[in-house]
Amino acid sequence: MSPALTVLFLALLLGLQPITTDLYLPALPALTAGFGATLPQAQLTLTALLLAFGVAQLVCGPISDRWGRRPVLLWGLSIYVVASVASTLAPSMAWLIAARTLQGAAMGAAVMCARAIVRDLYRPVEGARVMSKGLTGLGVIAALSGPLGGLLTDVAGWRAALLVLAVFGAATLALIVWRFEETVPQKNPLALQPATLLATWRRILSHRTFWAWSALSAGSYGGLFTVLATSPFVFIDLLGVSRWGYGLIMASVSFTYLAGTVLCRWLLPRYGLQRTVALAARFTLTGGTLMGVFGLLGWHNGWTIMGPFYLFMLAHGVHQPCSQSGAVGPFPQSAGAASALNGFGMALVSFLMGSVLGVIMDGTARPLLYGVWFWSVLIVLAAWTVVQKHGNPEH
Q1: Rounded to the nearest 5 degrees, what angle is found at the Cα of 244, between the Cα atoms of 77 and 48?
Q2: Are 6 and 180 spatial neighbours (Cβ–Cβ below 8 Å)?
Q3: Is residue 319 part of a domain?
């Protein structure tokens, strides 16, 4: 495959995650009201999806090391399309939660393979640059998802917004069938044997480099998830923003993230992986601290929420490609398993945070503001300490 085609595949596969979450966010208050559901039930449509997303990677990672990335992608995307249609036709909130859970598991297979493909084809530093290009494509998809979800919900209802996921999944599946070539240089016939699998997981989980970068990726995604889970209710229900307007706000967040991925590619050849994330963490700390201070002062409006969060997202566009490439970098022969464990960590953090938010959301913007502040502090601690000490993925 050409480098351009590889980046296109990365963008589409990684883009499954934001389109699955961001496009339906403007519809979340409407479908919650339509089913007469509670706020914790509404949160479960996100948290259950993300938990399944993480657990599925633990299974699909070793399978892809044994049989290759292509079979896992074909099965995963096929199940994703079926689950998307099922969520569109859901007659109840329980049905929707079940369909979203299956959708999350299928999404896990695709996203895990995308991260592993980068390690199959590139060394860590170059892999981070290629990953940032794929995440730039993710940013474009995410930028379009929010406004499209808001528009479709206003014009045709929330089911129309969910149907788009099936169309996107089917188009991605068709392209994989047509042009994707296997990237695993040498399949591991022992990858699924229990003794081998446990030894592989033990080797990955005992590696300090994996933990350093995984701490950064989990913290960074935890901050993003906090906003994804709370912002529809804060902006639409509390601040009175229209669904279309909320979609535009989320699009602006995605464009900021996109700018961060471009900044990442500019910084990497000049400073390397570790120094790059240390510099980006300054934006993280500034944005998160401002959000926390505004929360303490009671300044809860669009500008006090989004202005600082743009700084957080600019840094997020640097932290994610670097951390995902860095976590998998030391494991060229078991990239699927390493990618799966890294992805599981991000999903587990999101699930736990979603469970907490379902309890503490109080009709104000404070859970959003304080939540991002909390994650910002953890991100900075990881970027300035363990990543600097143990983050060389070549070791």
Answers
A1: 40
A2: no
A3: yes
CA dist., res. 245 & res. 306, Å (int): 13
- Does a structural domain hold residue 336? yes
Cα four-point dihedral sign 303, 308, 310, 313:
negative
Question: What single DSSP character describes residue 333?
Answer: G
pLDDT per residue over 198-233, tens digit each?
899 999 999 999 999 999 999 999 999 899 889 988
Mean per-residue pLDDT over the chain, rounded: 90
Phi, psi of 26 (to 5 degrees): -60, -25
Mean pLDDT in residue range 50-55 = 88
pLDDT digits (tens, 9 = 90+) for 249-262: 988 998 899 899 99
User: CA distances (Å), 161 to each of 96, 146, 164, 181, 256, in order?
Assistant: 14, 10, 6, 32, 24
Range of the domain at 203: 3-180+196-390
Tally of domains within the chain: 1
Backbone phi, psi, residue 392, to 5°: -80, 105
- Which residue, chain included where needed, has tokens 């290009």? 133
Q: How many Cβ atoms are within 10 Å of 393's Cβ, its own excluded? A: 26
Q: Token digits for 228?
A: 């994804």
Burial class (CB in 10 A: 0-12, 13-18, 19+), 41: middle
358 belongs to a structural domain: yes
- Please report, for the domain that includes residue 135, its CATH number: 1.20.1250.20
pTM of the model: 0.83
Q: How far apart are CA 210 and CA 110, in angstroms?
A: 21
- Structural domain contains residue 93: yes
Scanning the structure block, which residue is given the tokens 């997981």? 201
Check if the beta carbon of residue 325 is closer than 8 Å to that of residue 128: yes
Residues in the chain: 395
